[in-house]
Amino acid sequence: MAIATNGGREVVIEARGVEVGFGDRLVLKGADLDVYRGEILGFVGGSGAGKSVLMRTIIGLIKKRAGTIKVFGSDLDQLRDDERRAIERRWGVLFQQGALFSSLTVMENLQFTVRENLKLPQRLMDELAVAKLEMVGLDASVCRKFPSELSGGMTKRVALARALALDPEIVFLDEPTSGLDPIGAGDFDELIATLQRTLGLTVYMVTHDLDSLHTVCDRIAVLVDGKVIAAGTMETMLKSEHPWLKEYFRGKRARAAIGARAEPPPRGA
Amino acid sequence: MKNGQFLRENLQGDRLALTGAGAWTAVDARALEVQIERLERTYPSISNVTVDMSPVERLDTFGAWLLERLVRAFETRGGKVEITGLKEDYRSLIDEMHAVKLDDLNRRRGGTSFTYALSSIGENIVSVGHSFVAIVNMFGALVSALLRVFTRPLSFRMTSLVHQLDMVAWRAVPIVLLITFLIGCIIAQQGLFHFRKFGADVYVVDMVGILVLRELGVLIVCIMVAGRSGSAYTAELGSMKMREEIDALQTMGFDPIEVLVLPRILALIIGVPILTFIGSMAALYGGGLVCWLYGGIAPDIFLSRLKDSIALNTFEVGMIKAPFMALVIGVVACVEGLAVKGSAESLGRQTTASVVEAIFLVIVMDGLFAIFFASIGM
User: Fold this and answer.
1) Considering only residues 189 to 218 of chain A, which have any Cβ-Cβ distance to chain B shorter than 8 Å?
2) Secondary structure of residue B6 in the 3-state scheme
3) CATH fold for domain B2-106
4) Does pTM surpass 0.80?
5) Contact: A140, B102; criterion CB under 8 Å
6) Do A102 and B344 touch (CB under 8 A)?
7) Is B239 in contact with B348 (CB distance < 8 Å)?
8) CB within 8 Å: B61 and A128
9) Is pLDDT of A118 > 70?
10) Test mutation, A105, A107, A124, A169, chain B, max B CBs within 10 A
11) Domain spans of chain A?
12) Which CATH architecture has domain A39-60+81-259?
């Protein structure tokens, strides 16, 4: 299986002509998308436009009606079950509400996939769980708490730590900053950027947060009317004359977001 | 020089030179850990260690943590570990691991299994006490809500009451009819089978009549209602509690007891006696049918015998109990529902507790009523 490259960059997710519908309503009408290794891709679109649908289709939670999705160069439809599971172990998903298992402690949540996939001694798993917690800015004191005892921001962080439990190559984030206050959201963006650098992750981020798009995203893809109408850097988005893009990136709220950031901080490599 | 798969070691005097190899990733974490632990044991007194990481192809959190563990193992013995040849990409990962503190992890709860057993007995007794207090508390809240509704009758949730009546009474009719009918049939058949041996067939009518009207009708219906509606109440209120809907009600100035609990419990108090009546009739019908078809007691004989054997108070005893049992089922279900915490597991636990507690209390109440009616001669 050849791994597609584009201008020397490896394409880790390649979606072509993806169609997804519910009943007689077609949500995705042939969406095309490339995600390159090591980038943070921000995926935007109107509410209900199907941003999360495309993400959930890629990770296999929703069946598509047509099109192909290749991850790490292999077509997900052609894979045997065990090959598919091997690919699934190479990605982690952060769901919008965290989706932590409510009957397990934070520690058990973090160790769940590790325990199932690798036969590691308990001590090593414990230490790694603490290490992951510290990487997302928490500490060992939350280990024995249950998800219901965590605040919104902590839940997101623990969920992110769980998504990173197996050291995945791709992380899917579904609206990671929704429900966080601006400071918490800013910290979370910072955290994602740091982790991306530290672990060399590819990040696929569904978001509405213009600040996130400005600060951490390398590239932005836009979903309008069931198609990806544009993909590129923030500068390309700002220059575009497409009415939806103009409204989204240069509308009132967007101007406020840019205005507040007179000098966008440069992102380290 | 000995070779491990991931670490080659070379002892030069008091200096241990280690050279990494291969990919230090999650898949091989276990093998790597074994090697590192062996190194710690083999060289307990070495104080000067260098690790050359340049041949390591890949490093993830698992590998980085194990490297950090190696460093810590030698440093706690007063040694010094120097890491060289690390790829720049991995530098921040190593720093991240270096900052990890494990103090909290090692602080575990102490205690033996004996003290654990004692403490869990104690906790259980305390929780029984708590649930008793909660039930009494709920009674009080109900009465005060009821009084408030009496002073402002318009504030009563009539729609909610009708909806709950539909759910707990009307929709329960078919299943209650079916089950009580079958119970009536079974009692009559068993009675006939055994009474026939000493020619007392006709007393089966007395037994069916008294048993069904005094005890079984109301008990079967209450057990059905506890399982069907009590669990539904607990689950509804519990998930509303989980989603903070009850908090929302409270902040809008509504009393959750008045809005949610009162209509539900009133619906049960109205519905259960009706169901008890319907159930008792179905059981008598089933008993009569079996007496006719299986025991050869014609329906007119059954009816006249039934008229002789039961009095109005037999029927009253059953019907008087029904609303009290309904109250207990409703209160227990609502108390358990409001005790749900944030997790899905807690919702399941409270729903189970609600049904078990309600059935237990219904049977205890039935016993108390039996003593009461016996002493007043009913």
Assistant:
1) 194, 197-200
2) coil
3) Transcription Regulator spoIIAA (3.30.750)
4) no
5) yes
6) yes
7) no
8) yes
9) yes
10) A124
11) 39-60+81-259
12) 3-Layer(aba) Sandwich (3.40)
